[in-house]
Design a protein that fits this description.
Blueprint: H1 6-13, E1 17-21, H2 28-36, E2 42-46, H3 50-57, E3 67-71, H4 79-89, E4 94-99, H5 101-108, E5 117-121, H6 127-132, H7 139-145, H8 149-152, H9 157-179, H10 185-196, H11 205-212, H12 216-228, E6 232-237, E7 251-254, H13 264-287, E8 291-297, E9 303-310, E10 313-321, H14 329-337, E11 341-346, E12 353-355, E13 358-362, H15 363-368
Parallel strand pairs: 1-4, 1-5, 2-3, 3-4, 6-8, 10-11, 11-13
Antiparallel strand pairs: 6-7, 8-9, 9-10, 12-13
Helix pairs in contact: 11-12
């Protein structure tokens, strides 16, 4: 199996270091080893392993190593300056650095590595990625299990459910404690449970704080932690040149749409969100252009689920429906007033068609073409 970013990462390694970041168990180490198979003398070093740590700290790898893969390197003191020194002096060795929340956060702080690396964000499988690599794929299984490799490829739903329970427990009890000093793990768990049931709705920190009996700023801090750990991501409103627009709170979606608690509409909306977000991030990492995923909303409540924006220009508006193939009135409203391509994707649709300037598309067919 080949991940869609593999060749781009190989090309980038010929010019700079590559940082590969993403959620836990999304396949970063697996992809790193796949990439290493292209090289003659690759070396994988994990800073969590005692022997590997000694090799790293003493620069003790052999001179004929042509690819250095560093995992968990961000746990080393002053790792950025150390890595800068390696990159600047070992010009014949390619360098791939993998990690999750800490690496993503630390690589954004300071400029000691500026101009020396390309960043690639590895997200769960989308249906488009599966179709590109020509693997057997069942869209209904994908909706139920999410896009993380292990549950998606599991033999049974029971295996997938067991993975998710262990994965979620590990995130809360290990990753959150490692990333942030949080004393109230019970509140984090309750917050996560609430968010699982509010996918697709603008987040009210005040409402969540009342439900959790916490200060709004504490709730906001906890959500920022969940974002940093690649558990949830935010979709913010887009307002440039939109009449009667107003800033609203973001909507939150899960990287693992198998975590969503709700009806088919909520699950499909989250699956669409993560597929679009993956598409946007891969384009951004590959081209360097400013590309974002947002939603549209006016003061009087007219809303469209998503819009893809490049350099502050809306490329396409997307409304998601579980079964309703009748064009959404809000989608029509925005299409009549702005020159944005408009698509309504429907989970259960036999025939695709067009109403005026609005395309009505089958969700599976639309997502596999991203």
């Amino acid at each position: 199996m080949k991940r869609s970013q593999q060749q781009t990462i190989l090309d980038d390694l010929n010019r700079k270091m590559v940082f590969l970041v993403g959620p836990r168990q999304v396949g970063k180490t697996w992809l790193a080893h796949k990439i290493s198979a292209v090289y003659k003398n690759p070396l994988y070093l994990n800073y969590d392993h005692y022997e590997d740590r000694s090799i790293i700290e003493k620069y003790a790898w052999l001179n004929d190593v042509d690819l250095l893969i560093f995992d968990e390197l961000h746990k080393m003191a002053d790792w950025k300056n150390w890595l800068k020194g390696v990159f600047d002096t070992r010009t014949t060795q390619h360098i791939l650095v993998t990690g999750s929340a800490r690496l993503q956060t630390f690589s954004q702080a300071g400029d000691s590595l500026a101009g020396r690396y390309f960043a690639h964000r590895l997200l769960p499988f989308s249906s488009a990625e599966f179709h590109r690599i020509d693997e057997p794929f069942d869209f209904n299984v994908y909706l139920k299990r999410g896009g993380f490799p292990e549950p998606l490829l599991a033999n049974t739903d029971i295996e997938a459910d067991r993975w998710r329970r262990q994965y979620t427990d590990s995130l809360i009890r290990t990753d959150i404690l490692d990333f942030e000093r949080v004393n109230d793990l019970r509140s984090i768990q309750l917050l996560l449970d609430l968010l699982r049931r509010r996918v697709g709705s603008p987040i009210s920190y005040k409402s969540l704080s009342e439900d959790l009996q916490l200060a709004p700023n504490t709730v906001k801090k906890y959500i920022q932690t969940l974002e940093a750990l690649f558990i949830v991501f935010r979709v913010t409103p887009f307002s440039k040149n939109i009449a009667r627009s107003i800033l609203k709170e973001p909507k939150l979606y899960f990287y693992d749409h198998g975590m969503v608690v709700g009806d088919n509409g909520a699950i499909l909306e989250n699956a669409v969100a993560v597929s679009l977000y993956k598409h946007v991030l891969e384009r951004e990492d590959r081209t360097g252009q400013e590309i974002g995923l947002h939603y549209l909303r006016t003061k009087d409540g007219k809303e469209v689920d998503f819009c893809v924006v490049e350099n502050n220009v809306v490329e396409k508006m997307i409304e998601v429906k579980a079964a309703d193939s009748k064009p959404d009135k809000n989608l029509i409203y925005f299409r009549q007033r702005y020159p944005f391509a408009a698509v309504q994707i429907v989970g259960n649709l036999q025939r695709e068609y067009k109403v005026g300037d609005v395309e009505i598309r089958n969700a599976e067919l639309f997502l596999k073409q991203l």
